[in-house]
């Protein structure tokens, strides 16, 4: 039988960095294949390359036997390839019915609601409906399970099985391992752009290479050196949250979060994509309004973000883009950096004269950390520092975070997908699952509990 989608030797480069290196996939009609891996493994880039949104550096892509690697995205779509996006990419100023009409399908019943009026699960379903409007042969899904509750996950599983039964081949990227293990026929695992395992869900789940990629069971990927865990301090509280509830458009994402961060300690906040980690950080920083609960940041309650910044709060956020037209050095001068931050982040020195917008994603993450540290914060919230960075660079930057906590007494809340590194630098931590704290304790205790719990993707 001719595969619905066949990918051979797919390579994608961004500058000198190879983000996807030699990916092979073969999707039979009516099959569901999982593509998983840690943040930065190259999963979304692979989907972008298959759908024609980024150029490939090598390899072939065949749809129902026909080569499509030289075709534009619209031509691939016409031949039967469809996809969804992490951000859903809905037309927010069009109604539900109009969103479907744009894709060439009429809603089964008229729905004049705007997407902003939908629940998260309804938005996810609409994105999937729109992708299926053209009755594609192959459907690429990017994190459809993120943020879904149990009912939403079960509805998604039923929908995917129905699509497969109708002959659609599905390639599923998702961090919800329960979803992947339950619905997929086969699973391919990427780490740093390369396939490290492939097989049935049961085989992949116990593969030592997969466990090491996610948790680093015995060592880091930089030759076996591990980071010495700091002695737990006795900190004064800088951040306290009690019963924190927050979300979007009236729909809660986190429910009753209790956590504290003290001076001089690194506290890890761990969990799958969609668990509520970023939502928690935004609510703690005052960027996202709270639905319930109490938060005290540097002694202030219900303070505006600008007030908290003046008091000593700094954030390194996901998606933090630099200013267009400014160099790295000019960015640092904006925050009145005295240059000492470069002693802790020396890799930025040769980049001082470079336009910040042409930096790689990893270099932009380093710049974001430098800008935060240049303000000499008392409390630092760091959301996914590792995005776009090689593991050895992540280890170096996390050492820097640990050092500023130890030497300067900075309290750090660290959201990080490289769990094995996070628990090495953290004093203690919390695990979130579907918006609730399901485990907390010392870093050593959490590492053992996570490995056997299924709370993180292993």
Number of separate domains: 2
Largest sheet: 6 strands, mixed
Strand content: 25-35%
Instruction: Order the strands across the largest sheet as they lie in space.
Output: 6-7-8-3-9-10
Overview of this structure, please?
With 458 residues, the protein is α/β, with parallel strands linked by helices. It contains 16 helices and 20 strands. Helix 15 runs antiparallel to helix 16 (443-453). The model is unreliable at 216-231 (pLDDT under 50).
Keywords summarizing the entry:
Rossmann fold; about 25% strand; six-stranded mixed sheet; alpha/beta; about 450 residues; 16 helices; 2 domains
Task: Please sum up the structure shown.
This protein has 458 residues and is of the alpha/beta class. It is built from 16 helices and 20 strands.
Task: Write the topology of this structure.
Elements: E1 5-14, E2 17-27, E3 32-36, H1 43-51, E4 58-63, E5 66-67, H2 73-78, E6 81-83, H3 96-102, H4 120-131, E7 138-142, H5 150-165, E8 169-173, H6 177-183, E9 186-191, E10 194-199, H7 201-205, H8 208-215, E11 237-248, E12 251-262, E13 266-270, H9 277-284, E14 290-297, E15 300-301, H10 305-311, E16 313-316, H11 328-334, H12 341-344, H13 361-374, E17 379-383, H14 391-408, E18 411-415, H15 419-425, E19 428-433, E20 436-442, H16 443-453
Parallel strand pairs: 3-8, 3-9, 6-7, 7-8, 13-18, 13-19, 16-17, 17-18
Antiparallel strand pairs: 1-2, 1-4, 4-5, 9-10, 11-12, 11-14, 14-15, 19-20
Helix pairs in contact: 15-16
């Amino acid at each position: 039988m001719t595969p619905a989608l066949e990918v051979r030797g797919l390579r994608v480069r961004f500058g000198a960095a190879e983000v996807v290196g030699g990916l092979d996939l073969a999707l039979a009609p009516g099959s569901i294949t999982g593509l998983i891996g840690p943040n930065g493994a190259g999963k979304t880039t692979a989907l972008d390359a298959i759908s024609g949104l980024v150029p490939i550096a090598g390899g072939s892509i065949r749809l129902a036997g026909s080569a499509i690697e030289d075709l534009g995205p619209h031509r691939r779509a016409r031949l039967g390839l469809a996809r969804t996006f992490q951000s859903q990419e809905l037309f927010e100023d069009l109604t539900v019915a109009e969103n479907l009409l744009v894709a060439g399908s009429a809603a089964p019943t008229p729905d004049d609601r705007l997407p902003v009026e939908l629940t998260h699960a309804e938005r996810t379903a609409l994105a999937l409906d729109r992708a299926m409007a053209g009755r594609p042969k192959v459907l690429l899904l990017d994190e459809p399970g993120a943020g879904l509750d149990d009912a939403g996950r079960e509805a998604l599983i039923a929908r995917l099985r129905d699509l497969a039964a109708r002959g659609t081949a599905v390639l599923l990227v998702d961090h919800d391992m329960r979803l992947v293990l339950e619905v997929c026929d086969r699973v391919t695992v990427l780490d740093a752009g390369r396939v490290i395992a492939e097989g049935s869900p049961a085989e992949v789940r116990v593969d030592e290479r997969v466990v090491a990629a996610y948790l680093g069971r015995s060592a880091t990927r930089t030759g076996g050196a591990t980071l010495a865990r700091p002695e737990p301090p006795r900190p004064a509280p800088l951040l306290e949250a009690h019963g924190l509830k927050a979300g979007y458009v009236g729909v809660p994402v986190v429910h009753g979060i209790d956590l504290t961060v003290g001076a001089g300690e690194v506290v890890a906040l761990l969990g799958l994509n969609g668990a509520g980690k970023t939502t928690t950080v935004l609510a703690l920083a005052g960027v996202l309004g709270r639905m319930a609960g109490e938060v005290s940041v540097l002694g202030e309650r219900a303070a505006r973000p600008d007030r908290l910044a003046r008091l000593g709060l700094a954030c390194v956020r996901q998606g933090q883009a630099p200013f267009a037209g400014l160099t790295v050095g000019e960015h640092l001068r904006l925050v009145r950096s005295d240059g000492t931050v470069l002693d802790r982040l020396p890799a930025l020195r040769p980049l001082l004269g470079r336009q910040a917008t042409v930096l790689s994603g990893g270099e932009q993450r380093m710049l974001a950390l430098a800008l935060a540290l240049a303000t000499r914060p008392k409390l630092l919230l760091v959301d996914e520092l590792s995005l776009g960075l090689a593991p050895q660079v992540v280890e170096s930057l996390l050492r820097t975070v640990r050092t500023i906590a130890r030497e300067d007494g900075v309290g750090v809340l660290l959201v990080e997908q490289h769990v094995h590194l996070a628990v090495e630098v953290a004093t203690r931590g919390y695990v979130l699952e579907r918006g609730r704290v399901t485990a907390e304790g010392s870093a050593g205790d959490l590492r053992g509990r996570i490995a056997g719990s299924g709370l993180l993707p292993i």
